Amino acid sequence: MIRGSELAATGGSSTRGPASLNDRETWRRLEPPSQRALLGRLYEGIRAASVELCQPLVAEDFCLQAVKETSPPKWHLAHTTWFFETFLLQPFLPDYKDFHPAFQHLFNSYYNAVGEQFARPMRGLLTRPTIDEVMAYRASVDQSINQLIDTCDQENLPAVSKLLELGCNHEEQHQELLLTDLKYSFSLNPIKPVYQSAPSDVANDDAGSTVRSSQWWEYQGGLCEVGHTGSGFSFDNEHPRHKVYLEPYRLSPWLVTNGEFLAFIEAGGYDRPEFWLSDGFAEATAQGWKHPLYWRLVNGRWYEFTLSGERPVNMNEPVTHVSFYEADAYARFCGKRLPTEAEWELAAETVPVEGNLRESGRLHPAPADGVNPLFGDTWEWTASSYSPYPGYEPEAGAVGEYNGKFMINQMVLRGGSCVTPAGHIRASYRNFFYPPDRWQFTGIRLAEGIRQ
Amino acid sequence: MIRGSELAATGGSSTRGPASLNDRETWRRLEPPSQRALLGRLYEGIRAASVELCQPLVAEDFCLQAVKETSPPKWHLAHTTWFFETFLLQPFLPDYKDFHPAFQHLFNSYYNAVGEQFARPMRGLLTRPTIDEVMAYRASVDQSINQLIDTCDQENLPAVSKLLELGCNHEEQHQELLLTDLKYSFSLNPIKPVYQSAPSDVANDDAGSTVRSSQWWEYQGGLCEVGHTGSGFSFDNEHPRHKVYLEPYRLSPWLVTNGEFLAFIEAGGYDRPEFWLSDGFAEATAQGWKHPLYWRLVNGRWYEFTLSGERPVNMNEPVTHVSFYEADAYARFCGKRLPTEAEWELAAETVPVEGNLRESGRLHPAPADGVNPLFGDTWEWTASSYSPYPGYEPEAGAVGEYNGKFMINQMVLRGGSCVTPAGHIRASYRNFFYPPDRWQFTGIRLAEGIRQ
Amino acid sequence: MIRGSELAATGGSSTRGPASLNDRETWRRLEPPSQRALLGRLYEGIRAASVELCQPLVAEDFCLQAVKETSPPKWHLAHTTWFFETFLLQPFLPDYKDFHPAFQHLFNSYYNAVGEQFARPMRGLLTRPTIDEVMAYRASVDQSINQLIDTCDQENLPAVSKLLELGCNHEEQHQELLLTDLKYSFSLNPIKPVYQSAPSDVANDDAGSTVRSSQWWEYQGGLCEVGHTGSGFSFDNEHPRHKVYLEPYRLSPWLVTNGEFLAFIEAGGYDRPEFWLSDGFAEATAQGWKHPLYWRLVNGRWYEFTLSGERPVNMNEPVTHVSFYEADAYARFCGKRLPTEAEWELAAETVPVEGNLRESGRLHPAPADGVNPLFGDTWEWTASSYSPYPGYEPEAGAVGEYNGKFMINQMVLRGGSCVTPAGHIRASYRNFFYPPDRWQFTGIRLAEGIRQ
Amino acid sequence: MIRGSELAATGGSSTRGPASLNDRETWRRLEPPSQRALLGRLYEGIRAASVELCQPLVAEDFCLQAVKETSPPKWHLAHTTWFFETFLLQPFLPDYKDFHPAFQHLFNSYYNAVGEQFARPMRGLLTRPTIDEVMAYRASVDQSINQLIDTCDQENLPAVSKLLELGCNHEEQHQELLLTDLKYSFSLNPIKPVYQSAPSDVANDDAGSTVRSSQWWEYQGGLCEVGHTGSGFSFDNEHPRHKVYLEPYRLSPWLVTNGEFLAFIEAGGYDRPEFWLSDGFAEATAQGWKHPLYWRLVNGRWYEFTLSGERPVNMNEPVTHVSFYEADAYARFCGKRLPTEAEWELAAETVPVEGNLRESGRLHPAPADGVNPLFGDTWEWTASSYSPYPGYEPEAGAVGEYNGKFMINQMVLRGGSCVTPAGHIRASYRNFFYPPDRWQFTGIRLAEGIRQ
User: Fold this and answer.
1) What distance in Å separates the CA atoms of residue C312 and residue C310, rounded to the nearest whole number?
2) Per-residue pLDDT tens digits for B71-99
3) What is the CATH classification number for the domain harbouring D12?
4) Per 3-state DSSP, what percentage of chain B is helix, strand, and coil (rounded to 5)?
5) Which pLDDT belongs to residue D99?
6) Is C126 on the interface with D (CB under 8 A)?
7) Cβ contacts (< 8 Å) between A60 and chain B: which residues?
């Protein structure tokens, strides 16, 4: 099967979920009341989902922060609210009064243009405001946002709707982080708290080895285009759509499984510098990495911590919680490599956005049967550093700090994971983390060039 | 006035509060039922006090831990319970079953003989067990302790009563730490949480300078005895009572006030190495110390954080939250020195255990009127390093890890503070912290030798 | 002026200096004795240059190492020798005996396939072997290499000549590092040692502002090729030559001068996060950067440390010793950007390799008169992360650790500097350092896209 | 045998070596020319000894500094010279001009009253001034000091002689440090440099176990006096002589041997917290200590690095290069304790200052035959923290920074070592290092109380 670059121009499509107005052009052609109603439903759905994710938590959990990279649930709930207050209510709602004078400082993440931020590693110290007060903050902002949607001048509506959509996508990102951060913090508690009970199909069935599709997907490359197209929502970092030249390549149809990765471990992969980037080997050595994050060997059997507690590793599931360094070393161990982000995007543009995403309720990668779609299960590390596309321009104003200033030292990941909302992900979506980061649901899809 | 060493031999006396059996000899002469009843009342009072101290807290506060030196309230509540479970129920109550298999690990502080400990800096991550579960743990252990008191063999009663008394004194220490740890963690929250409302007499009255007693207290020294005597409760580090030779000396009748310490600040004291020990100046420089912990200069006025929130510094109150290094530098700035622990104890042996202790409810030093008793307000840094007394022997068994293994690198403090229970402190009591520690209620009493 | 991609295929040309066999094809067609003679001359010249660079040093200087990133001169002299011993003498010279059993360990830099390495930060502790012993090591290896050149089988000669050429290029890299490392270490000595006296033309003439060429160089881009071509020497990281698609762009004809950079400083550039990448601003803040490395403000006048000691900053010279973060922030301050490495290479392929390189003897950037050639003065930071070219393959064997394993977290620099030997640099040459690195002669050339 | 406190009042005596004027009273009664001649001889001898110790060094060694606690030989040579220049030539020699304007800054160790100091960890970076320049500095200052001795007013002579004597004792301390620092730095070099060849009697004879004197030395204690007495030289920290009360005690007549300490190692001593102070166990764990510094297990045999290179551990020699923590843990392992400094001094006051000191030329502890004198071989850790004696006053002026400001966090050591000049040590001499320090020649003598 050859999927060529000729198809690329047709762009991404597929159903979009609740975080966007689907097709901005269609939205624009609606009557104003319908426009506002659609905005209200979008907002309401996203906001409710955040609260729903917190149902299993007790009050103490809301302040849980294990390391500076993670944030407590309470902070996620408040920060996303601060985003709407700061970028929508303050500029657009007449006579709006801040809910609390200190929140501007406490819940600003990194927007220097908005003001100084409370120290990131200390977010867990904010036992006050209490979770009840934060919920009251949410309710108050929700009410004001609804008021804004209902009452803002029609001429402001395009700007308001654009920022509202941005705020909703922002909140969806924090929903994902809320789960990954919580998983990390829970994992350090020796009593291994359970966020949700395990889905019934998670039998600890690692006996049967699955039959692999022997045929990798092939792409002819050539002069292609990548970057966002169409009128759906996108972040500034997906722009502008631009030309790239790709040599012919193949992608593996499946994500590397726990069983495959175990072979790397058992071959001494963590101790053999020949497979590793120099910085990667230094990091693995300094941190004592000998297996993916959350794995633990107990009496000769591998266990892993999940959002459903600790359980035996299912060898047929995609491996997850590996750093870029481990993904890259594993690929070299196999004589393969990671795909570039352009290679990945070209492949993804023609397939539906379907897979094991958050809506499946599993919140964990699912056993592979030889094919994993490009979306869902785990974010896929690419070989591409996170850089601006040619001609990239950040958004104007403080929201311009959203993406551009992070374009250094990080690697691009693609495809979303089992905790990404289905409506949030798309072919051109660029996620980014540092090479040693492991606490996201990150995994490995192999690639190789086609020699001619 | 001369208070001489001749009086030393009469030993400490005074009323003892709820943490001890007052006079062990008297207790021994009681009928067994009365003995057991007294033990029960002692235990009940101490345990209730811990819970009472937590009344102002919300659930999130129970996991609050800002730095590794401090522990969250939940941990204090559980660890003190673990102490009774480990040293009384396990060895003495037949068929006792541990409340939870993981607690032995989670709530052991530093008893290596008992097993490995959960990492100290991560105590705040224990959102589970919840505070409700910890309260259930307390209730369960309380019930079993009462059962033990009622039913243990008479031959075991001496050992049980000794360990119970130790556990009660241990819990009182953690009550003090619960307050000082909470104060520290709250202080880092920009919204400055209030633990209790301020006492009505805390007028911000720093206008009137108090009249100082011009006469320092004088002591002739000579060959004296220090160390615990009598049959009341004591820790092993107060033993054995032994002879020391002291030159004649004077003690200041008052604790250094905020106003006096401000003169040191305003004289550039923090930037003048001639007043400081070399390690102290290096620490002050590295940490950027320019004033006591919790002070903050706002628009030219000094404020300090208290358990009643932030308020203007009262210049007539004893200065507190200064490290040994600052206390020592201040003394040198004045041409004086800190007292040795023997000098302090000799003076304290003849005065009643009275002062601004926890029972006053103030939980903050009180304005001085020229005399501060040796007990209460602030712990007083001494010039003595924390070392074993000649012939010191730790308690046998795991409880021997209580004091002896910390006898290095720390300095002795004496006298108790405004958060020390009155029944807990005595003339021979040796507290100890590291020279840079500041988060306890620590203060300064000056001394000098009498040249002859 | 348009310089188009059409010309790219002609490849780099120009005279090559002593570090390569110029044109391998030509060399291959020589008679064997001439081949060997040419190898001998190449080797002799490079080796002599290393020793010559050390003429100004005293014995103590040979062990000088200020930070782990730098190495002492003695170590550079020994490590380059170790390279020839390890990769040429051991495998190819019959019955070769190592000069010293410990040197394999002491002077291996990072070749894991060769064995464990002596800790990098401790290279300065190797006062023994003495510099005399290291010179004897060099002499001994030189003699054996000459013997190898003269006597090796003709069938081995291609392999030997290839490794010898690699070793010579490797030694030239260390010659550059020897100077930049020494400059860094000397700069920390308050008596400001002088490596060589200043060239007579370095008048402290910063009065006259130079006239800038107003016209930037323009390139039409399109589908181009980059990567090494031709039969001259190259490193594996310059391969394979491959297609890239470039939008039209302009390059500044001059390097940013000290005077221009001063405007950034005086505009508060170091304190304005809007110009910086997030990681860059964090680094600048943590390190307290307020100006390029080696600058110092004395009584209102800027001085900088050079290999000729400290002297006033010449405002017409290209700014140097700035990190990638500073270069990137400066570009954003100007509303411009840094060029990508492909943009740079395309421009460089058609110009001669000429400029202020090491042979000028200046060892410092020269005042600009409005045009700086692409080669010399300072390495030019590009916007490209250091990644493998599509289809990249490392060299086989231990020398494969030369480049590939460093392809993460670093940025590409192009063009060579005032301490790079002229024969060492070329259009396709890829240098790489970490974004915060400042101790190399690094500078800034601006670029911008051409909107169409 | 009982050696009682009655004898204490007779004070220390014995022959004093070149670092002091022996008996100041006697010196005062000499004719002025003889006084000056004696000063000159004292100075000349000390200064020559420093240079002589450097004979085995090559130029690179003079800048060798492995960690901030140690200093390079060049720095010791220059700093001791700076001491004479600063405290004698500047104040007392008319029209004296500093040898070099930067040396005041470069070679000041920690005298804040004299000015800012060059960063201690960077002393090894001072390749310039060269060793030749430092030797010229020494010669110049020597000439000026001789001129001062010859020409200063008779009225200044007492002050000059006092400071000169202090400077000579100061230089002797740096002679000892020069050797211990060099040993540490050399030990990190895998080729194990040799400072001097081994004495012929250092046979690797660890086969024969020595016969221990079964009888420990006993002392009755009581009310005693300690502190310096007599008219010989002393440091301010040995004053004032004062009363202490001691319980009866015993001292071991021998220093703990390598063989005895090996029993601790083999009993798992380093992994058993019950023997250790809490801070000590944490330090040992963090540092990975499993044996004394400089020991290394090679093929089942213990080797140690010495100033004569690496050689098998002689099990009959006193163990050395152990920290206070290890000494204290070893004592607890034996059921004994370390002596207090008063106990040690009382015992030492009545014995001659004789032992394996620097003059033996061995520069290493000597095998014990069951008795080690109190002086020489290794400094003996005491159980006493380094605190001011009652009534202690530092010297006036900048030289007052010599001792007093270090009286925190350190432990007292007594008796001198195999690299201490014989004339430098005495019964009342107080040395001090931090509990984890290991690079001095430190060892262990056990003590115990006598129960009555």
Assistant:
1) 7
2) 999 999 999 999 999 999 999 999 999 99
3) 1.20.120
4) 40, 10, 50
5) 98
6) yes
7) 59-60, 62-63, 74, 127-128, 130-131
Q: Shortest CB distance from B277 goes to which of D274, D385, D408?
A: D408
Cβ–Cβ contacts within 10 Å for residue A165, how many? 21
Burial class (CB in 10 A: 0-12, 13-18, 19+), A335: exposed
Q: How would you class A72 by CB atoms within 10 Å of its CB: exposed for 0-12, middle for 13-18, buried for 19 or more?
A: buried
CA dist D330 and D256 (Å) reads 9
Question: Are residue D292 and residue D178 in the same domain, yes or no?
Answer: no
Q: How far is CA A77 from the centre of its chain?
A: 17
Q: Which residues of A touch C273 (CB under 8 A)?
A: 112, 405
pLDDT digit string, tens, across residues A398-429: 888 889 999 999 999 999 999 999 999 999 99
A154 and A33 in a single domain? The answer is yes
Element (H, E) at A303: strand A301-306
- Per residue in B279-312, pLDDT (tens digit) is 999 999 999 999 999 999 999 999 999 999 999 9
D127 touches chain B (CB under 8 A): no
ipTM summary value: 0.94
Three-state DSSP class for residue C337: strand
pLDDT over 70 (residue A202): no
Put simply, the answer to whether D280 touches B243 (Cβ < 8 Å) is no
Q: Which residue of A has its CA nearest to C272?
A: A112
Inter-chain CB proximity B128 and A190 less than 8 Å: no
Name the burial class of residue D366, with classes exposed (0-12), middle (13-18) and buried (19+) by CB atoms within 10 angstroms of its CB: buried
Residue A246 shares a structural domain with residue A345? yes
Return the H-helix or E-strand segment holding D381: strand D379-385
Measured N-to-C along each axis, helices D258-266 and D324-333 cross at an angle, to the nearest 10 degrees, of 80
Q: CB of D119 within 8 Å of any CB in chain B? A: no
Whole-number Å distance between alpha carbons of D353 and D416:
10
Q: The tokens of C279 are what?
A: 């990681």
- Owning domain of residue B74: 4-187
Whether the per-residue pLDDT at B425 is higher than 90: the answer is yes
Distance from CA of A108 to the nearest CA of C (A): 15
Asked if residue A200 is part of any domain, the answer here is no
Determine whether A333 is exposed, middle or buried from the number of CB atoms within 10 Å of its CB (0-12, 13-18, 19+).
Answer: middle
A142 with A280, same domain? no
Say which amino acid occupies B358: R
User: Rounded to whole angstroms, how far apart are CA atoms C17 and B446?
Assistant: 77
Question: Which residue is closest to D126 within chain C, CA to CA?
Answer: C189
Question: How many domains does chain B divide into?
Answer: 2
Residue D44 has pLDDT above 80, yes or no: yes
Write phi, then psi, for B311 (nearest 5 degrees).
Answer: -150, 165
CB C347 within 8 A of CB C414: no
Same domain, C183 and C260: no
Q: How far apart are CA D365 and CA D373, in angstroms?
A: 12
Q: How far is A102 from chain B (nearest CA, A)?
A: 7
Distances (CA, A) of B208 to B205, B311, B378, D95: 7, 18, 22, 56
Same domain, yes or no, for B442 and B309? Answer: yes
Whether residues B191 and A129 touch (CB distance < 8 A) is answered with: yes
Please state, as a whole number, how many other Cβ atoms lie within 10 Å of the Cβ of residue B198.
Answer: 17
pTM of the predicted model, to two decimals? 0.94
Say if B201 falls within a structural domain: no
Same structural domain, A241 and A131 = no
User: Parallel, antiparallel, or unpaired: how do β-strands C295-298 and C301-306 relate?
Assistant: antiparallel
For residues A104 and A245, state if they share a domain: no
Residue A291, domain CATH? 3.90.1580.10
d(C-alpha D251, C-alpha D346), whole Å: 11
Top pLDDT among A207 and A118 is at A118
Does the beta carbon of D278 lie under 8 angstroms from any beta carbon of chain B? yes
- Does a structural domain hold residue A326? yes
